C-alpha cells in the first residue's frame, strides 16, 4: 500500500482498526466501511493469511449487500489472524480478546464468517452484549446451522434459470468450499433436482460425474475430515472444482478463486457466487464476454445477513426464511433483467443499484 488512505473513496471506510493484545495472542483488523443506513453488520473471519486489504474489500461487499437487500444496516467486516482449528480454549481466548477490543465500536455488529460459528458469536455476545448468528438457546437464529445463505443461493439459481440455458432439474453442480454455505447450497440445489459432481474443501477436490452422495460428505465434514476421504470418487489435490465439467459452479470459499489464470478452464454456464469476492474483476469480465451468467456475490449470498438482520430486530426463523426468499428472488430478477435489457454484466447493474441506495442514505447525514 503506497498511501495509508489507498483503501478510501467517497463511501468509506469510515474506520480501519488494527487490534492487538500480546497476552492473548490477538492480531485482528476491523473495517467499518459505511454506516449511513445503520450500524454495520458483517462476519468475523478467522484465517492464518487474512490481510487488511481483504478485510476492507469484504467490508465494502457488505455495504453493497446490505444496501441491495434494503436492510437498515451498513457494511463492516473483521478478520482475526489465526488457525480456526486450534483447540477450543485457545480459540475462545482469541474471540473474547477480540470482542473486548471492539466493545466500544457500536457501529459494528459481529456475525459468523469463515472460521467462526454460533459458539464464537455466543462468546462475543457474552463479552460485549451484541452479536448476530447466535445459538437458539440465546434467542438467536443460528444462520450457519440452518443454512440461510445456501437457501438464498438456491433461490438465486432458480431465478437465473429464466436468463440462461441451464435448468436446475438435472443440472451438474460443482461447489468449491463445503462449509456453512457450500453444504447447504448443495442440499437445496439437490432438492431442486440438481446433481453434485464436484466438491472441494481445503484438503482438495472429489469428483464424480454420476453424482456425489451429500449425506456421506456431510458426515465426513461433521467428523472433522476432508471431503477427499470419500471412498470411490476421483480426487484432485487442488482447485479442480473451479474447472470441473459442470453446468453450475458455486464458489463458496475464499476470495479470488477465479482468476485470469484459471478462468479459461471454467466450464459452467451459470455461476452463483456463494463466497464474497470469489472472482477477480478481469475474470468476471471474461466470463461475461463468453456468455457465462454470473450472479454476483452481494446479490446471491445475502441470505446470511438478511437472517442476521431479522434476528437483530427480534424476528423469527420463519420470518427470516420468508425475507430471504422474497428479497433474493426480487433482487436477482431485477438485476438479471436489467443486465439482459442493457446487455451489461450483472455486477455492473447490481453495483449501480446498491450504490444508488447507499448514496441516498448518505444524503440524510450531516456530513455526507
Ligand atoms: N456463512 C454465511 O452465511 C455467509 C458466508 N459467505 C461467504 O461464503 C464463504 C464461505 O463461508 P462459510 O461457508 O461460512 O465458511 P466455512 O468456514 O463454514 O466453510 C468454508 C469452506 O471453504 C473451504 N475452503 C477453505 N479454503 C479452501 C480452498 N482453498 N479451496 C477449497 N475449499 C476451501 C473450507 O475447507 P475446510 O472444511 O477444509 O476448512 C470449508 O469447507 C466465505 O467467502 C464467506 O465470506 C457469504 C455470505 C454469508
Ligand atoms: O453477519 C453475518 O455473519 C453474515 C453476513 C456476512 O458476513 C456475509 O454476508 O458475508
Automatic annotation (TrEMBL):
<keyword id="KW-0560">Oxidoreductase</keyword>
<feature type="site" description="Important for catalysis">
    <location>
        <position position="113"/>
    </location>
</feature>
<dbReference type="InterPro" id="IPR036291">
    <property type="entry name" value="NAD(P)-bd_dom_sf"/>
</dbReference>
<dbReference type="InterPro" id="IPR046346">
    <property type="entry name" value="Aminoacid_DH-like_N_sf"/>
</dbReference>
<feature type="binding site">
    <location>
        <position position="65"/>
    </location>
    <ligand>
        <name>substrate</name>
    </ligand>
</feature>
<feature type="domain" description="Glutamate/phenylalanine/leucine/valine/L-tryptophan dehydrogenase C-terminal">
    <location>
        <begin position="140"/>
        <end position="366"/>
    </location>
</feature>
<keyword id="KW-0547">Nucleotide-binding</keyword>
<comment type="similarity">
    <text>Belongs to the Glu/Leu/Phe/Val dehydrogenases family.</text>
</comment>
<dbReference type="InterPro" id="IPR006095">
    <property type="entry name" value="Glu/Leu/Phe/Val/Trp_DH"/>
</dbReference>
<dbReference type="InterPro" id="IPR006096">
    <property type="entry name" value="Glu/Leu/Phe/Val/Trp_DH_C"/>
</dbReference>
<feature type="binding site">
    <location>
        <position position="149"/>
    </location>
    <ligand>
        <name>NAD(+)</name>
    </ligand>
</feature>
<feature type="active site" description="Proton donor">
    <location>
        <position position="77"/>
    </location>
</feature>
<dbReference type="GO" id="GO:0006538">
    <property type="term" value="P:L-glutamate catabolic process"/>
</dbReference>
<dbReference type="InterPro" id="IPR014362">
    <property type="entry name" value="Glu_DH"/>
</dbReference>
<dbReference type="GO" id="GO:0000166">
    <property type="term" value="F:nucleotide binding"/>
</dbReference>
<dbReference type="Pfam" id="PF02812">
    <property type="entry name" value="ELFV_dehydrog_N"/>
</dbReference>
<dbReference type="InterPro" id="IPR033524">
    <property type="entry name" value="Glu/Leu/Phe/Val_DH_AS"/>
</dbReference>
<dbReference type="InterPro" id="IPR033922">
    <property type="entry name" value="NAD_bind_Glu_DH"/>
</dbReference>
<dbReference type="InterPro" id="IPR006097">
    <property type="entry name" value="Glu/Leu/Phe/Val/Trp_DH_dimer"/>
</dbReference>
<dbReference type="GO" id="GO:0004352">
    <property type="term" value="F:glutamate dehydrogenase (NAD+) activity"/>
</dbReference>
<protein>
    <recommendedName>
        <fullName>Glutamate dehydrogenase</fullName>
    </recommendedName>
</protein>
<keyword id="KW-0520">NAD</keyword>
<dbReference type="Pfam" id="PF00208">
    <property type="entry name" value="ELFV_dehydrog"/>
</dbReference>
